[in-house]
Every structure is written in structure tokens, then in C-alpha cells.
UniProtKB/TrEMBL annotation:
<dbReference type="Pfam" id="PF02519">
    <property type="entry name" value="Auxin_inducible"/>
</dbReference>
<protein>
    <recommendedName>
        <fullName>SAUR family protein</fullName>
    </recommendedName>
</protein>
<comment type="similarity">
    <text>Belongs to the ARG7 family.</text>
</comment>
<dbReference type="GO" id="GO:0009733">
    <property type="term" value="P:response to auxin"/>
</dbReference>
<dbReference type="InterPro" id="IPR003676">
    <property type="entry name" value="SAUR_fam"/>
</dbReference>
């Protein structure tokens, strides 16, 4: 059965994520996450990679696993009840879980690629 495209749920924006050589995936990000400093750093990286006048959906040039991890940090920081949704995986909601990682902001500022 063909995969059905779906859009972002209400209160979310769709972003495409994937590093060079990696298949891009679509995620629905809660609007409240866009103003977080970690997401702002992701957008700055996208601007450096694609330019300010990039057309189409927001594209984030980092590995999918790293993007999901950053989103989990944002979700935990905000105590948000809305979570990241994987639009290319049947709308699976990815929540913050109970990660014990202690990652500091400077590690993520700048280049998000290895």
C-alpha cells in the first residue's frame, strides 16, 4: 500500500531534516520550539547552508538522529506537552522520554554535522 503524505498537525510546522548523503525526513515541530535557542542554532546552520532566501519547507542540514535529540532537549527544557511528530513514519510522536544526557548548549551551536 502506498505511503500517504500527511501535513503537520495544528500548532506545528513541517521541517525537512537530513545531512548530506542522508535521506531527508519530514517532522512536525511544535511552534513553541521555534523560539528556543537550540532551534535558533539549527536555523542559523540552515541559513549558512541554504541561504536566507531558501524557498519551500524549512530544511535543517543535520543528521536525523541529532535533530531528534536536540528536539528532545528542547521539549524537556520547555516542559512542553506537544512533541515532535515523524511525518514520514506514520505520524509517530517522539516524546522526550527520560534521557540522562547532560549536553550543554555550546556543543550544539554552530555546525550540527560531524
Amino acid at each position: 500500500m502506498p505511503h500517504r503524505q500527511q501535513g503537520a498537525p495544528k500548532g506545528c510546522v513541517t521541517v525537512r531534516v537530513g545531512a548530506e548523503g542522508e535521506e531527508q525526513r519530514r517532522f512536525a515541530v511544535p511552534l513553541g520550539h521555534l523560539s528556543h535557542p537550540l532551534f535558533a542554532a539549527l536555523l542559523e546552520e540552515a541559513e549558512r547552508e541554504y541561504g536566507f532566501r531558501h524557498q519551500g519547507a524549512i530544511a535543517i542540514p543535520c543528521r536525523v538522529d541529532r535533530f531528534v535529540h536536540v528536539e528532545q532537549l528542547i521539549d524537556r527544557d520547555l516542559g512542553d506537552h506537544r512533541h515532535l511528530v515523524d511525518l514520514d513514519n506514520c505520524g509517530v510522536t517522539l516524546n522526550a522520554g527520560h534521557s540522562n544526557s547532560h549536553i550543554q548548549l555550546p556543543r550544539f551551536v554552530g555546525c550540527f554535522r560531524d
